[in-house]
Structures are given as structure tokens and as C-alpha cells.
């Protein structure tokens, strides 16, 4: 992409309505535009990051054996009457009436709908286990939409649902989700800590929330600092291996880590004092096992091995795809702007031409741009007739992790400059060496 042809409406002024860094930076970097309270348009740069995050979620879900599909945003109220949640959900549910006076709603989540799909087609235990998921817009009429996409009313969520014959099988599905989520967040450059949580309106005894530590987080959390040393890394996982998945759950959840809803001062006191931490966190996901709550209410049974009908054991598992943009920025920015982790960056690198119109500089930029593109990268080439300072400021604001700076003076010595957004360190390299460095960086990332 050439910046002269892109749509990147950056703001010079700091928007007054934004209280936290991520919201401020997303507005300033031209990523989102608010259309109504808690409702946003995703401008091209924001949309690109949203899609990158969605892709990582998709890849990791499918690696775990979960099957993608798509359910509608609008749902019939009758399904929710069956589970009893139509009344229980309260004013957060956006209720709609169609022209035939039928009660509809904009889905805040999909347990009822997926259970209805399941019971329509699946009748034998032989078709289990089954985990279906989708990534779809949700609506919750939040009392206080705020912090931009972090607490929107309309937001993008991955929600997955497992169907199993026994509690034991369903707990394996739970563990599998926990493992896949650990991988997912790490690929986005995030440390998200699984913490024991409260079931809330979805209900259930087994549930963990994944929290990214940040001063601006809305949840109060209590944990043993040893949990922050854990990392998933590139270990090989066999998602069908019950023991292996259970072992990872154990490793990541046996230490004290809870949100305020489940915090227990007596238990916390058992953590060595120098490791006790109280902090704030952003909830970027949650997993639940809730047994037969919906299958009982909605008659989702299968014929068991002995021929008798049994209600299926279920769980649901959500990732806040749109909230993740805010969480990543909260965890990774400085005074000049965003610092994208390589895994989610909207463009792999920026190319800054210090002297647009200079034949050598223009040609060197074009060559780099074409070479990067040919290797499957997406560079953002700032080909505008702007001062160098303004170009650098834009690149810093939008946070591309790598920048290649090209100018007539460097080219005389056969070099361009490769700069890391994170460290600010620059290296002078021959253009083809800069190119292979980018290949190397993303090969590893
Ligand atoms: N209003 C919202 N805006 C953006 N993302 C949200 C919102 N509500 C929930 N999410 C995301 O969707 C994920 C799964 O939804 P879940 O039903 O667990 O939300 P929740 O626990 O009600 O969230 P919260 O406690 O923050 O209101 C959450 O972990 C969060 O990342
Ligand atoms: Mg939650």
C-alpha cells in the first residue's frame, strides 16, 4: 500500500473523549470512528488489525479441532424463552420487533441457537465429541460503553460450543480450549493469565477468565507472581491427548490467580508474601463448562451406547476479538504511539522516502516495495511529499514494528536504515540485507 493512496485519517489533536491510551491511539491513528455510543466503524487500518487477530483465532481454533461456522446476529426470542434467559438477561439485551410483531433480539451470545442447531441434527453419541464456533458481531446494551472498542455495545466475539457425552469428555474440551487460548494470546504478543472466575448469567462451576494485566483494566485481580513467569512457547500439542491438555491446565492454573468475584483472602494469604500481587486486568476471554444446563432446558439429547437418551454436556468459550485491539495497545505503546507485535501488525514494515521526487530515492523505495511484496509481505510505503519528521511521526503513531528509511545520502553509501519501533535502534544496511532481515524477523515471529 502506498500512503498517498490509502485512507488513513490520522488526528493531530488528542481526542477529548478518550480516557485511556488505547482508545486515544486508535482514534488518533485513524483506526476507528465512533458512530453512536459504543458503536464503531472500523476504518481501513483498524479493520486490517481486526482481521489479523481474527485470523490467528481461526487458525488456533482449527488447530484444536474446532469447526468454524456462522450464525446470524438476529435471533428469535422464542429460543431464549426455552432456556428462560429471555427474561433473565435484562436490559443488556437489545430486543427488536419485526413487521409481523414477532419478538427478535440482537444476539449477545449464542448458547440457545447452537443448542437448537445441535438438537436438530445430532441424535447419536457416535457423532460426539463436537465443537463448533463462529466469529460474529454481538450486541450488549452496556450501561456504560467506554474505552472505545474495549467496552463497546456492538463488538466482535469468537464464541465456541462443545458437545460431549460425559462430563469427563466435556472437561477435556474445556482443557483443550484453555490450551488453544494460551497459544492464541501468545501469538498476539500478549501475556493473558487464566484466572478463576465467576459464572455470571451464563452459569457454570468451571470457568476461567483470561486477563491481560494493565492499569486501565476494569477487573481487580489477585495472583501469585509466579504465574507471570509461565509461558507456552512453541511446545507441540496433541489436542486429542487428554493427559497432555490436563497437564497444561494444571501448570497454568494451580497457582493462585483470581478475579475479585472469586477472590478468597484466606487462600491468598497462603501465597508467600513477596509473591502476592494485586493489580488490574483486561478480560480478553473466558471459558465455561456448564454441564447439561441448556441441553436439559432445550432437549438436546443423544442416544447413548446403551440406547437410552442422555442430555449432552456442554461448555462455551469466548474470545473478545475486537476488545483485543485495545488490550494489545494498552500492553504495547509509548508516548509516540502504538507498537504492534509482529503477529498482528497491519503492515509488516513501513518504507519512508526521505526525499520524494529524488530519482535514486524513489527508485530504491520502489525496488524495496516490489521485493517485499514479491515475498508476500505487505509494506506501507510513505510516498507523500512530506517532511521527514512528519513521516516518522505518522509511522510511530500507527506503530509498524519495523521501518526502512531511504534517503539520497544513505544511498550514496549503498545503505538504507532499518529501525525497530520497539527499541528505537537503527542499523544501516544494504537494501537487500534489510530485506532479508525482514524475512528473518517474520520467519521467526
Ligand atoms: N461490551 C464488550 N465489548 C467488547 N468486548 C466484550 C464486551 N463484553 C464482552 N466482551 C468480550 O467477549 C468475551 C466473552 O464474553 P463474556 O460473555 O465472557 O463477557 P463478559 O464476562 O460479560 O465481559 P465483561 O465482564 O467485560 O462485561 C469477554 O471475555 C470479552 O473479552
Ligand atoms: Mg466473561
Automatic annotation (TrEMBL):
Protein EC:
6.1.1.15
Q: Which residue intervals define the domain Aminoacyl-transfer RNA synthetases class-II family profile in the entry? A: 38-341
Signal sequence residues: none
Q: Does the keyword Zinc apply?
A: no
**UniProt keyword list:** Aminoacyl-tRNA synthetase, ATP-binding, Cytoplasm, Ligase, Nucleotide-binding, Protein biosynthesis
Catalytic activity of the protein: tRNA(Pro) + L-proline + ATP = L-prolyl-tRNA(Pro) + AMP + diphosphate
Highest taxon listed in the record's lineage: Bacteria
A Pfam family matched in the record? HGTP_anticodon
GO MF assignments: proline-tRNA ligase activity
| Matches recorded under InterPro entries | aa-tRNA-synt_IIb (IPR002314), aa-tRNA-synth_II (IPR006195), aa-tRNA-synth_II/BPL/LPL (IPR045864), Anticodon-bd (IPR004154), Anticodon-bd_dom_sf (IPR036621), Pro-tRNA-ligase_IIa (IPR002316), Pro-tRNA-synth_IIa_bac-type (IPR004500), Pro-tRNA_synthetase (IPR050062)
Q: What is its main location?
A: cytoplasm
Keyword presence, 4Fe-4S: no
Where, subcellularly, is it found?
A: Cytoplasm
What is the similarity comment for this entry?
A: Belongs to the class-II aminoacyl-tRNA synthetase family. ProS type 2 subfamily.
* Annotated NCBIfam families: PRK12325.1, proS_fam_II
Looking up PANTHER family in the UniProt record yields: MITOCHONDRIAL RIBOSOME PROTEIN L39/PROLYL-TRNA LIGASE FAMILY MEMBER, PROLINE--TRNA LIGASE
Q: Any idea what job this protein has?
A: Catalyzes the attachment of proline to tRNA(Pro) in a two-step reaction: proline is first activated by ATP to form Pro-AMP and then transferred to the acceptor end of tRNA(Pro).
- What is known about its subunit structure? Homodimer.
Question: What protein does this entry describe?
Answer: Proline--tRNA ligase
Origin organism is Parasulfitobacter algicola
Amino acid at each position: 500500500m502506498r500512503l498517498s493512496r490509502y485512507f488513513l485519517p490520522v488526528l493531530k489533536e488528542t481526542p477529548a473523549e478518550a480516557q485511556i491510551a488505547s482508545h486515544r491511539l486508535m482514534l488518533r491513528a485513524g483506526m476507528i470512528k465512533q458512530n453512536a455510543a459504543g458503536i464503531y466503524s472500523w476504518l481501513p487500518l483498524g479493520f486490517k488489525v481486526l482481521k489479523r487477530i481474527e485470523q490467528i483465532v481461526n487458525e488456533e481454533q482449527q488447530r484444536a479441532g474446532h469447526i468454524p461456522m456462522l450464525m446470524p446476529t438476529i435471533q428469535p426470542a422464542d429460543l431464549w424463552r426455552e432456556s428462560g434467559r429471555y427474561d433473565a438477561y435484562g436490559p443488556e439485551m437489545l430486543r427488536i420487533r419485526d413487521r409481523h410483531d414477532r419478538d427478535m433480539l440482537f444476539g449477545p451470545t449464542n448458547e440457545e441457537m447452537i443448542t437448537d442447531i445441535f438438537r436438530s441434527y445430532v441424535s447419536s453419541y457416535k457423532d460426539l465429541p463436537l465443537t463448533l464456533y463462529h466469529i460474529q458481531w454481538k450486541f450488549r446494551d452496556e450501561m456504560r460503553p467506554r474505552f472505545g472498542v474495549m467496552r463497546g455495545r456492538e463488538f466482535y466475539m469468537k464464541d465456541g460450543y462443545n458437545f460431549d457425552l460425559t462430563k469427563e469428555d466435556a472437561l477435556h474440551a474445556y482443557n483443550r480450549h484453555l490450551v488453544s487460548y494460551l497459544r492464541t494470546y501468545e501469538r498476539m504478543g500478549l501475556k493473558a493469565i487464566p484466572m478463576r472466575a465467576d459464572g455470571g448469567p451464563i452459569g457454570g462451576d468451571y470457568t476461567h477468565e483470561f486477563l491481560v494485566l494493565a492499569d486501565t483494566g476494569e477487573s481487580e485481580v489477585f495472583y501469585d507472581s509466579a504465574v507471570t513467569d509461565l509461558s507456552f512457547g512453541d511446545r507441540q500439542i496433541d489436542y486429542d491427548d487428554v493427559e497432555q491438555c490436563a497437564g497444561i491446565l494444571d501448570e497454568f492454573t494451580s497457582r493462585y490467580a483470581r478475579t475479585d468475584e472469586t477472590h478468597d483472602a484466606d487462600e491468598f494469604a497462603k501465597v508467600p508474601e513477596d509473591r502476592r500481587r494485586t493489580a488490574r486486568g483486561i478480560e480478553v476471554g473466558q471459558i465455561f463448562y456448564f454441564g447439561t444446563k441448556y441441553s436439559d432446558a432445550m432437549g438436546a439429547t443423544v442416544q447413548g451406547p446403551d440406547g437410552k437418551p442422555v442430555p449432552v454436556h456442554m461448555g462455551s468459550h469466548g474470545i473478545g476479538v475486537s476488545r483485543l485491539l485495545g488490550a494489545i495497545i494498552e500492553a504495547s505503546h509509548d508516548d509516540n504511539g502504538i507498537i504492534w507485535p509482529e503477529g498482528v501488525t497491519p503492515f509488516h514494515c513501513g518504507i519512508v522516502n526521505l526525499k520524494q521526487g529524488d530519482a535514486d530515492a524513489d527508485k530504491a523505495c520502489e525496488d524495496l516495495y516490489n521485493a517485499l511484496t514479491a515475498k508476500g509481505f505487505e509494506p506501507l510505503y510513505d510516498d507523500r511529499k512530506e517532511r521527514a519528521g512528519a513521516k516518522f511521526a505518522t509511522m510511530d503513531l500507527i506503530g509498524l514494528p519495523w521501518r526502512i528509511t531511504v534517503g539520497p545520502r544513505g544511498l550514496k553509501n549503498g545503505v538504507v536504515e532499518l529501525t525497530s519501533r520497539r527499541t528505537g535502534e537503527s542499523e544501516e544496511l544494504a537494501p537487500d540485507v534489510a530485506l532479508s532481515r525482514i524475512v528473518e524477523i517474520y520467519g521467526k515471529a
